[in-house]
What does this fold into?
Amino acid sequence: MTVYSHSRLSCFEQCPYKYKLSYIDKVETEIPESIEAFLGNRVHEVLQKLYEDLKFQKQNSHEDLKKYLHEIWEKNWDDSIVIVKKEYTKDNYLKMAEKFIADYYNRYHPFDQGRTIVLEDRILITLDSEGDYKLQGYIDRLVESCDGFYEIHDYKTNARLPLPSEIKSDRQLALYMIGVKSNYPDVKGVKLIWHFLAFDKEIDSTRSDDELEALKKETIALIDKIESEEKFVAKTSFLCDWCEYKPVCKQWVHLYKIKEMPESKYLSEPGVKLVNRYAELKEKKKKFVDEVESELEEIEKALFSFAEKEKVDVVFGNENKVRIKETETVKFPSKSSKEREKLEKLLKENGIWKEVDQLDTAALNKLLNENIIDKELVGEINKFIKLEKSKRVYLSKI
It folds into this structure.
């Protein structure tokens, strides 16, 4: 079976069609990486250098790391790198990267919080006893904090700080934890640590053995789902703006076909013409329906007035007739109102709370109509009830 990874699983969850294009069809695209991915890669390289040099007893100054960042930024920069947020420039993102490094340096200098075991190291994770389900990943930094206790560190350059519940359910580092516990049998405990560099914030968590077993089962189920998938339907979201397959995706390919056309050809393109005409007709239909609904309401009011004045229940036309029916509806206090609280308290005190199924108003109304409840209690309940009159018209052939 295929050796999966967290990113591969996430790709399927994000969009099955993107997964198909990337991992099954292996479609090559001409769209380069995004500025967010470029920034993340450069920051990871700087932090890797920081800890790699420390293994050789070389401690870089903040200026050393800043200089290295600029070197690898310019070396790897390509003008085709995509900046989706057009209000920002390449320099804005470089300054962001500088701040990430500066904040990290100031927080952890002199970098003696444990002993680094591996950097950017590939880890293989086995999910089942037979060894059929495997994943691989790359740990940013594995640290021995004290005798037998390990920390899995992960650097994030996200522009959004996740909620505590998202950290608790994060799959990536928890999967790495399974691999670490398997590869290092002497490990006494593993802590998962995320560095959210945009916020100069460190968040840590861990997982129990039961939670890791549950994660194994969930991940195996997801792999089985991917392996049995046949349709791979596209799933659109805001993430489409960062997708490298957008120009060849069924959801977007027509847009890429027409957006480079001159206006003279664009407006006469068959698909554009059909959509424009369809939208125009839908708008006409909406206006027409709104106008008809408004006139119907006015005529209904006029019919009510006519029937009341003439003291009739049915009004005749040429071929049709309209029957006017007046009804009374029982209205109980609305939920979360003080009157509702008082009514619920009354029902509970008189032992009929269960009979009305936690105040199912239809059930209570039925009990009242069947004269099952004591008359005195009925009187108390009726204080909370309002009768609303309404009229309706019924059109039929004569």
